[in-house]
Specification:
The protein has a single domain (about 25-155), classed as Cytochrome P460 (Chalcone isomerase). It is of the alpha+beta class. The longest helix has 21 residues, at about 5-25. The radius of gyration is 21 Å and the shape is globular. About 25% of the residues lie in helices and about 30% in strands. The chain has helices at about 5-25, 55, 65-75, 140-145; strands at about 40-45, 60-65, 85-95, 100-110, 125-130. Strands 1-2-3-4-5 form a five-stranded antiparallel beta sheet. Mean pLDDT is about 90; it is low at about 10-20. It contains four helices and five strands; from the N terminus they run αβαβαβββα. The structure holds heme C.
């Protein structure tokens, strides 16, 4: 016959296992931001074709903000529902004066949901290879580690341009 203490012991083991599973579960991931090309363009940057960083993540990047994110730039804190997109394209020298925009490389996304993404400052991070609607797995921790440099700006590097 099981004593209450044995049952209690099993309950504690079950809860501990559940807690561990929770800690090991992969971070939830934002969805692909359909329609972002109709949002507000925030700014553009270039890591040029001759820069050492070009091979890993260079090219033209265009940053877009949905209406909630626009309010965030103005307020300095981003509300839940804010979505920011970093749209990266190859930069191609064709021999003349112009460095042209080449094919898309990937789409990086940040989504603010302070409960769902509580472990990473309230932001969910995802990277989508060009043409893909499923995120590359396992990226969020590295994204957040770098964006933590601007924790005081609610983890957002860029500023809104007129
Ligand atoms: C090594 C640092 C670093 C890493 C790693 C990094 N980012 Fe960023 N990210 C930046 C910088 C710097 C900017 C601002 C670029 C600009 O202003 O032109 C930026 C901009 C952004 C923006 C536009 C909003 C903002 O903060 O200005 C998004 C969205 C974004 N990154 C998503 C991601 C995602 C998703 C990942 C991971 C897949 C990632 N980033 C990894 C440095 C980083």
């Amino acid at each position: 016959m099981r004593t209450p203490s044995v049952r209690m012991g099993r309950l504690i083991i079950a809860l501990a296992a559940f807690g561990l599973m929770g800690a090991d579960a992969p971070a939830p991931s934002p969805d692909f931001p359909d329609g972002y090309r109709d949002w507000r363009h925030v700014s553009t940057g270039l890591i040029g074709p001759h820069a050492p960083a070009y091979a890993a993540n260079g090219g033209f990047h265009h940053i877009y903000a949905n209406p909630a994110a626009l309010r965030g730039y103005k307020a300095g804190r981003f509300p839940d529902g804010a979505v920011l997109v970093y749209d990266l394209f190859e930069a191609v020298d064709r021999g003349g004066d112009v460095t042209a925009q080449g094919p898309r490389r990937h789409v990086d996304v940040m989504v603010k949901d302070s409960r769902r993404f509580a472990r990473t400052g309230g932001w969910g991070y995802a990277e989508f290879a060009a043409g893909e609607r499923a995120p590359r797995p396992g990226m969020a921790a590295a994204c957040h580690a770098c964006h933590e440099r601007v924790q005081a700006r609610d983890y957002v590097f860029s500023g809104l341009r007129d």
